[in-house]
Specification:
Elements: E1 8-13, H1 14-27, E2 33-37, H2 39-43, H3 47-57, E3 62-65, H4 68-77, E4 82-85, H5 94-99, E5 103-106, H6 109-117, E6 123-128, H7 143-153, E7 159-165, H8 176-198, E8 205-207, H9 211-216, E9 224-227, E10 250-262, E11 267-268, E12 274-275, E13 280-285, E14 302-305, E15 308-311, E16 321-324, E17 336-343, E18 346-348, H10 350-357, H11 361-366, E19 374-377
Parallel strand pairs: 1-19, 2-3, 2-9, 3-4, 4-5, 5-6, 6-7, 7-8
Antiparallel strand pairs: 1-10, 10-13, 10-17, 11-12, 13-16, 14-15, 17-18
Helix pairs in contact: 1-3, 7-8
């Protein structure tokens, strides 16, 4: 497992990634293709290895990122890929978008004009429509009005409009009112696309399926399924199951640096928030909140040691934390422990951790810091 400092590390299974891709492909029907969302360093998994595996081993040709730096990185890893920037790029960098053959998400006529004015060559783009997410995109009362603005934008010199897209707000919910809300979002973008077709405007792409929609409301009318969190084997929402076989790609591990016996009344960690009620064995683990293991897990989180769950005692520190190993007499210095992943017959997922302190699995994996090395297992 060398060369790397055996302190805290994340193991990323490329074989599981490949399995996840095949399952996601099986959910789609032609002409829908998978667009791999690899923003935020591939959701904390490391974009270089993830993108190369997806492009070279899985046949993925479409990628989505958040910004220009991420797009250029993906271009280096996958020279022939189609790369869409979902977020904002300052217009003064329009020449770099064009130079690297990147597709920019465009959110307004004003932004489209600014991009075109700053580019010496044609700018490829997909136009974002705000159908109910409320963040960015064209906002109109009717599909016909939306189509009017898109048609006008297509006349802007040096702007090459190749598609339209939107983002669902509650596709990860099976509540009737949320299903109806997503139906309305989907109808709006499809009606806009159909209105454009009726005017003789046929775009290459109309896409709206995120991870949740790919799992729960898949339709071939979306030319791309933007697979994000499910690509990495996590749930869009923990209340709903994901297709069988989609499993987490990442495990997070550390080691025990010290084991000691503490007496009744002894305090553990900052703030004296934990006081031993009886004699117990406590192990120190070489990971902390600076590694992305949240301080909010203090006194709540559990870690797998020799296949047994051990509760965190006291506050999580910047670089270390302590756990109760009274029920694991074999625990000793140098033992590997599992913070996310499988050990023996038990498993702790990023979704599980998220439930403990009130967030989502996305934040857990994205939050694992850069100082934690990613070790790739084929």
């Amino acid at each position: 497992m060398k060369p790397y400092l055996k302190r805290a590390w994340a193991e990323v299974s490329l074989s599981q990634l490949r399995k996840n891709v095949e399952i996601i492909k099986g959910l789609n029907s032609p002409p829908t293709e998978v667009m791999a969302v690899v923003k935020a360093d591939a959701y904390g998994h490391g974009d270089a290895h993830i993108v190369r595996t997806l492009a070279q081993d899985c046949g993925i040709t479409h990628f989505a990122v958040s910004n220009l730096d991420e797009a250029i990185a993906v271009r280096n890893y996958a020279p022939n890929a189609e790369i869409l920037i979902l977020g904002y790029t300052p217009p003064e960098y329009a020449h770099e978008i064009s130079m690297h053959n990147i597709i920019q998400g465009v959110v307004s006529t004003e932004y489209a004009e600014a991009l075109a004015a700053n580019s010496p060559a044609s700018i490829r783009c997909h136009i974002k429509i705000d159908t109910g997410m409320g963040r960015i995109g064209l906002k109109h009362d009717t599909p016909a009005e939306c189509a009017d603005e898109i048609a006008a934008m297509m006349k802007i010199n040096k702007l090459s409009v190749e598609g339209i897209y939107t983002h669902f707000a509650v596709a990860d919910s099976d509540a009737p009112d949320n299903i109806a809300y997503t139906d309305k979002q989907q109808s709006f973008i499809l009606d806009t696309y159909d209105e454009l077709v009726s005017r003789g405007i046929k775009l290459r792409h109309c896409h709206f399926m995120n991870s949740a929609a790919t799992c729960y409301r898949n339709t071939s009318r979306s030319t791309l399924s933007r697979a994000g969190i499910i690509l990495y084997g996590l749930h869009p929402d923990v209340s709903l199951d994901i297709p069988e076989g989609l499993e987490p790609v990442m495990e997070l591990k550390a080691v025990i640096s010290h084991v000691k016996t503490v007496n009744k009344g002894d305090c553990i960690s900052y703030g004296r928030t934990f006081v031993a009620e009886h004699e117990m064995r406590v192990a120190t683990v070489t990971i902390g909140y600076a590694d992305g293991y949240s301080r909010l897990l203090s006194g709540k989180g559990e870690i797998l040691v020799h296949g047994k769950r051990c509760r965190i005692v006291g506050r999580v520190c910047m670089d270390q934390l302590m756990i109760d190993v009274s029920d694991v007499p074999e625990a000793k210095s140098g033992d590997i422990v599992t913070l996310i992943g499988k050990d023996g017959g038990d498993i702790i997922t990023a979704d599980d951790l998220a439930q403990v302190y009130g967030t989502i699995g996305y934040e857990v994996v994205c939050g694992i810091s850069k100082r934690v090395p990613r070790i790739y297992i084929d």
